[in-house]
Amino acid sequence: MKKGESDLDQSGIIDPFIRNEREASIAAMADKLASVFADRAPLHDAEGSFPFENFDDLSAAGYLKLTVPKAYGGDEASVYEMVLAQERLARGDGSTALAVGWHIGMLLQLRLSDAWPKPLFEQLCRDIVEQGVVMNELASEPATGSPSRGGRPQTTATRAEGGWIIQGRKTFSTLSPILKIFTVTAAIEGCDRPGLFLIRRGPGVRIEETWNTLGMRATGSHDVILDHVFVPDDEVIRGADAAEKSAPVPTEAALLHIPACYLGIAYAARSFAIDFACRHQPNSTTVPIAELPNVKRQIAQMEVDWITARSYLYQVADRWDREVGQRAALKPELGLAKYMATNAAIRIVDQAMRIVGGLSLSRKLPLERMYRDVRAGLHNPPMDDIVLNNLADRAIHEMRGD
């Protein structure tokens, strides 16, 4: 590898956010996968089918173990490295990137929080490394909406001899077609806080293929039905007698895989539009449209959004990694990074379609899929209203000296 090659972007431009050889290696892995996934994305989007072959490739490349602790055979990626990998993977296929993001984000969260019993966590990590197992926490339900808003689950956990009986339905269950194990939240009678239970796919677990959406059509986010599923006591993550931690370990940075994904989609749309503008020359002009003042202005508007949102996202991820003692205080910044990235991504894809014009609506081109996919970012946590409210509260408290 020649000097400087490792930090080249896909367009051949040096990426300032690749700072060392390890990050260059992670980016190269994600780029290689993204190139393959981009060719498959149109068919999976059209069919709404799950990309099983993509997850075979992710496993073979070692991507699934990216955030697993080194002690268990993983790469123990930092938040910054996770963001880098996810952003570049999403340039090929947003659905695959968002889906696997829940897996690697959850593993990062578990690594930070140390919330699982050690034997269970160790076995999970080894299953990921050795067998390519994927993982997710299923918390959304029809009646509660987003779990980030604190709704009480209607899924129930009832005491039984030697364990618990779980009964309920989970929605937005991303990765459901390949989940062999997963966790679910469930209400426990007499307990204000929901329990958390490890579920193994088997008797009583059923997938209902309900996922037929505008965007992110290939994430496999179907409903999961739990019909009298038994969970033994030693696979209860948080039960009725679990004590609330007085100072919970901050883990919100694990959700930065979300804004990284949407910026990756935006980058792909931006690059497609600029390449189109450099090549497209209607017979009414003497130069490609990239030379026209109005199109230059549109390209510049994409660049403003892209550079600003990306810079802030990587800055916050880097601060989280370095400023360990300030992590709790960084929560508003983490939300702001997601707010900036997802809203900028929507504007970038919209602008890209304006540059390409009526052709951008064609299903033969990727822009209409990217336009649909970035809309999903508004519905991933944290929601815009929560982010803005947190920022306002902090500003008010600072002014009052609270």
TrEMBL record:
Cofactor(s) of this protein: FAD
Record-linked Pfam families: Acyl-CoA_dh_1, Acyl-CoA_dh_M, Acyl-CoA_dh_N
SUPFAM superfamilies per record: Acyl-CoA dehydrogenase C-terminal domain-like, Acyl-CoA dehydrogenase NM domain-like
Location of the Acyl-CoA dehydrogenase/oxidase N-terminal domain: 27-107
Residue ranges occupied by any Acyl-CoA oxidase/dehydrogenase middle domain in the UniProt entry: 139-229
Biased composition (Polar residues): 143-158
Stored Gene3D superfamilies: Acyl-CoA dehydrogenase/oxidase, N-terminal domain (1.10.540.10), Butyryl-CoA Dehydrogenase, subunit A, domain 2 (2.40.110.10), Butyryl-CoA Dehydrogenase, subunit A, domain 3 (1.20.140.10)
Residues covered by region (Disordered): 140-160
The Acyl-CoA dehydrogenase/oxidase C-terminal domain, residue ranges: 260-376
Record keywords, A-Z: FAD, Flavoprotein, Oxidoreductase
Homology family: Belongs to the acyl-CoA dehydrogenase family.
Protein name per Swiss-Prot or TrEMBL: Acyl-CoA dehydrogenase
